[in-house]
Design goal:
Layout (H helix, E strand, L loop, with lengths): L6 H15 L12 E6 L10 H19 L3 E3 L3 E2 L4 H10 L3 H18 L10 E2 L3 H16 L3 E11 L4 E3 L4 E2 L2 E2 L6 E11 L5 H6 L9 H11 L2 E10 L4 E7 L10 E4 L6 H5 L5 H13 L2 H5 L7 E9 L6 E7 L10 E4 L5 H10 L7 E2 L19 E2 L10 H15 L2 E6 L5 E2 L1 E2 L9 E4 L3 E4 L27 H4 E3 L6 E4 L3 E2 L1 H4 L3 H4 L12 H7 L4 E5 L6 H14 L12 E4 L2 E3 L2 E2 L10 H8 L1 H10 L7 E2 L2 H27 L11 H24 L2 H19 L7 H15 L4 H11 L22 E8 L2 E9 L4 H10 L1 H7 L4 E7 L3 E6 L1
Parallel strand pairs: 1-2, 1-26, 3-4, 12-14, 26-27, 28-30, 31-34
Antiparallel strand pairs: 5-6, 5-9, 7-8, 9-19, 10-11, 10-18, 12-15, 13-14, 16-17, 20-25, 21-22, 21-24, 23-24, 28-29, 31-32, 33-34
This protein binds one RNA strand through helix 7, strand 11, strand 15, helix 11 and strand 30.
Length: 826
RNA sequence: GCGGUCGUGGCGGAACGGCAGACGCGCUAGCCUCAGGAGCUAGUGGGAGCAAUCUCGUGGUGGUUCAAAUCCACUCGACCGCACCA
């Protein structure tokens, strides 16, 4: 065995070997429990970054550990390969997006292999492959046929840099999630998926997700934004129209002093036509529309509005109230119109104060302390109804219900549930995506491409230039087609799909990646799904993770699968940070995985990343920490080298009773370690503590080595065998090499997980802490299993205890066997 | 404003309510060495003391408990998400 640890030699050697064996290919096997571990597949940007390394290292440990535990593990990898950067590269450098993408995939796959990641490469997929996007198109048709895909004209988010529309989820603080440039509103006709139809189930089923971080569930909950209230209408007699309003505070209807419309509200025109206010209202609306989305919806922005000149009738009181238009009312939420109750809504309060609109108190606080003349802000607490006709005296919460009944009886309104969630805008005016399989025919209208005609191939010969027209629109051969219904001349849809559609079902495709007749076989999907452990960044909390849940529910309803949630357990890994900031080119603080692997090897890179912080927390990069991980492997190598011959020559079976004290102690530490590592890799995924206990075991081996030359080779073999198996999921290469140098047969990765021997960790004596009034004053060594009474007696025999107790009264004695004695004195 | 997460040595981080600081980094000393930015061994929270030992210490203030980093209340700070959502 080589005396020195040379990672490059060891790693190259085993990577070659593993590739030859295709060791991580999996098939359905009903003899063993299945386990599906998945890392979010990457966009093939060209190179792996440390975030990827962290993501895949975590997944790899889980996969390898579960396999050693006897699970039938599926651990696949693939490519989220459609998307903007490929197209930008085409515009900038004249490379075709397809060539650019496939080259990048090759490079990143090579890097993953250099990390020693245990993937089933037979299942590799790429969403830009025609055999994949054919089924993405099939999915689109499924949604269309279920009435879940539709086209509508709406004010949509437009990224000026990407030259395409974006879904609401993809706009972050008014900026594009990918390129960070400002997003503007544009009135366009676009394709949508009806995710709002699933809003309730997406919300309710969050409760099922016991294995998801609270944070992610809350974010989804916020995003869906369910609220319950009522909808009813104010009649506007002069134009014979009704203004519907949505409110969660139907208990305050008697306090309405005005109605406000969003500037975009369709009734505004009719209402102001011919009035003296018309000019002023139009000027106001034009000004508000010019404001960016961010400033328009900011809480900082001052509430502004204008009177329309019109009046509406409050159906509860018969009163006429003025109708205003104001910037703080959003057309997209509720009905685009709200009732103004200044006394009980802070926004209305501010608005009414500014424009001298009347305020009426309709809920009195429990202490009777509210008077409309003295309060200085809206009261939104609980209380008793006042100034509310028949509802006076009622508790306001109960009143909410009573008002609903009253409305429903008279048929003037109803209960309503509202969501913040909007439908998912799925069309994109870009080339590098899956073409939307729709055809426009002058005679037949919108016609879906028949499933048997799929795929709608993405043409290769396209000219790329920056601009707002989808490149596909300029490809005559693509656009012109025949109508599948009437056979007449027709045009293809030239938009492609949001790449989040591609990534919404890829985890199903892994279960049956080469199927040519359907997206996947249901039996296979049902065998593997749901994903037992999903791992990825938290940035997808309400993007990919919400879309994927939506897709899963639709596929379930379509009878394709029998599960309602795709990801049983979710681990959101933290970012990799350097000098306090996320690694990024612009900050110049990037450490490339390539560099680290070349210098220290993949095992070191993996070990450092897993050891430096718990997986869900941010990880501060430390070059010295990397050195430390490397040093540990050197230490491991030398100690195993020292005992290699001894271990290799030993029999696997030996008499545990023949061990001397030091050997017993070493064996005890081994089994303590097995226990700790097993526990740490169980539910908790605290890889850092798992590694620290393995380090302690190695330290114990060095301590043992100090003690002499005569050793029982059996225990040495047991220790090395178990040590290498414990470490194998973290550092696959070095453990494989050392395994072959010592234990020998087969691959360490084909071995079973070490078994914990409870007998081995038993000790004869244990240390007991003696406390006086909760403070540690002494420690004694006592035989294990000493009862409380004996322990107490022993404690009082101690000189130190006697000193403390002398002249005092013993109030109480607490004995925790095996742990401590606490004597309370006064 | 609403919701979530989190505050522990010089640093990354450990601690089923039971010895705070495991493990690693850094630092110090000794050994080994021609040498070492290699390796091995030992030490390493602050303060006091020659020492045994004492004392303070997990953002802050209270509380529960024999016992609190851990549980509860309030508070301060950091980060994240949503935010004029009616």
């Amino acid at each position: 065995m080589n005396e020195k640890y040379i990672p490059s030699e060891v790693e190259a050697k085993w990577q070659k070997e593993w590739a030859k064996e295709n060791s991580f290919a999996t098939e359905i096997n009903r003899q063993r429990p299945e386990y599906y571990v998945l890392e979010m597949f990457p966009y093939p940007s060209g190179k792996l970054h440390m975030g990827h390394v962290r993501n895949y290292s975590i997944g790899d440990v889980v996969a390898r550990h579960k396999k050693m535990q006897g699970y039938n593990v599926m651990h696949p990898m693939g490519w989220d390969a459609f998307g903007m950067p490929a197209e930008n590269a085409a515009i900038k450098h004249g490379v075709h997006p397809a060539d650019w993408t496939w080259d990048n995939i090759d490079n990143m796959r090579r890097q993953q292999q250099e990390l020693g990641l245990a993937y089933d490469w037979d299942r590799e997929i790429a969403t830009c492959h025609v055999e994949y996007y054919k089924w993405t198109q099939w999915m689109f048709l499924l949604f269309y046929n279920k009435g879940l895909a539709y086209k509508k004209k709406a004010a949509v988010n437009w990224c000026t840099e990407c030259n395409t529309v974006l879904a609401n989820e993809q706009v972050v603080d008014g900026h594009c999630w990918r390129c960070d440039s400002v997003v503007v509103k544009k009135e366009l006709e676009q394709w949508f998926f009806k995710i709002t139809q699933y809003a309730d189930r997406l919300l309710e089923d969050l409760q099922e997700l016991k294995g998801w971080p609270e944070r992610v569930k809350t974010m989804q909950e916020n995003w869906i934004g369910r609220s319950t209230g009522a909808e009813f209408s104010f009649v506007v007699p002069e134009i014979q129209e009704k203004i519907a309003v949505y409110t969660t505070r139907q208990d305050t209807v008697f306090g309405v002093s005005y109605v406000v419309l969003a500037p975009e509200h369709p009734l505004v025109d009719k209402l102001i036509a011919g009035k003296e206010q018309e000019e002023a209202v139009r000027r106001f609306i034009d000004r508000v529309k010019d404001l960016s989305e961010i400033s328009r919806t900011s809480t900082e922005t001052e509430k502004e509005g204008v009177f329309t000149g019109g009046y509406a009738v409050n159906p509860f009181t018969g009163e006429q109230v003025p109708i205003w238009v104001a910037n703080y009312v959003l057309m997209e939420y509720g009905t685009g119109a709200v009732m103004g109750v200044p006394a009980h809504d802070q926004r209305d309060w501010e608005f009414a104060t500014k424009y001298h609109l009347p305020k009426r108190l309709v809920i009195q606080a429990p202490d009777n302390g509210l008077s409309i003349d003295t309060i200085t802000c809206a009261y939104d607490g609980p209380g008793v109804m006042v100034n509310s006709s028949d509802f006076n005296g009622m508790d306001n919460e109960a009143c909410k219900e009573a008002i609903c009944l009253w409305m429903e009886e008279r048929n003037i309104g109803k209960r309503r549930v509202n969501y913040r969630l909007r439908d998912w805008l799925v069309s994109r005016q870009r080339y590098w995506g899956a073409p939307i399989p729709m055809i426009y025919c002058d005679t037949c209208g919108v016609v879906p491409v028949p499933k048997e005609d799929l795929p709608v191939m993405l043409p290769k010969n396209v000219s790329f230039s920056a601009g707002s027209v989808s490149p596909l629109a300029k490809v005559e051969e693509f656009v012109n087609c025949t109508c599948p219904k009437c056979g007449g001349a027709a045009r293809r849809e030239t938009d492609t799909m949001d790449t989040f559609i591609c990534s919404s079902w890829y985890y199903f495709r892994y279960t049956d990646p080469r199927n040519t007749s359907q997206p996947f076989d249901s039996a296979k999907a049902n065998y593997w799904m749901p994903v037992d452990q999903y791992i990825g960044g938290v940035e997808h909390a309400i993007l990919h993770l919400l879309y994927a849940r939506f897709f899963t529910k639709v596929l379930k309803d379509a009878g394709l699968i029998n599960i309602g949630e795709p990801f049983k357990n979710l681990l959101t890994q933290g970012m990799v940070i350097k000098d306090g900031a996320k690694m990024s080119k612009s900050k110049g603080n990037v450490v490339s995985p390539e560099e680290i692997i070349a210098k220290y090897g993949a095992d070191t890179a993996r070990l450092f990343i897993l050891f430096a912080a718990p997986p869900e927390r941010d990880l501060e990069w430390s070059d010295q920490g990397v050195e430390g991980a490397y040093r540990f492997f050197g230490r491991l190598w030398r100690i195993v080298d020292h005992y290699a011959a001894c271990a290799a020559s030993a029999e696997a079976e030996y008499d545990v009773n023949s061990l001397d004290k030091q050997e017993r102690e070493l064996r005890r530490v081994l089994h303590v370690t097995i226990g700790k590592v097993s526990e740490a890799l169980g539910e908790r995924f605290s890889f850092n503590t798992a590694i620290s206990s393995i380090m302690e075991l190695v330290n114990a081996m060095y301590a043992f080595k100090e003690h002499g030359t005569q050793v029982n080779s059996g225990v040495i073999r047991e220790v090395i065998s178990a040590l290498l198996r414990l470490l194998a999921p973290f550092a696959p290469h070095i453990t494989e090499e050392l395994w072959h140098e010592t234990i020998g047969q087969g691959s360490v990765h084909e071995q079973s997980w070490p078994e914990f021997d409870a007998e081995a960790v038993k000790v004869d004596e244990t240390e007991i802490v003696l406390q006086i009034n909760g403070k540690v004053r002494d420690k004694i060594i006592v035989p294990v299993g000493l009862g409380a009474a004996e322990l107490e007696a022993k404690a009082f025999e101690q000189e130190k205890v006697k000193e403390f107790v002398a002249g005092k009264t013993v109030v109480k004695v607490i004995c925790v066997p095996q742990k401590l004695v606490n004597i309370v004195i006064k």
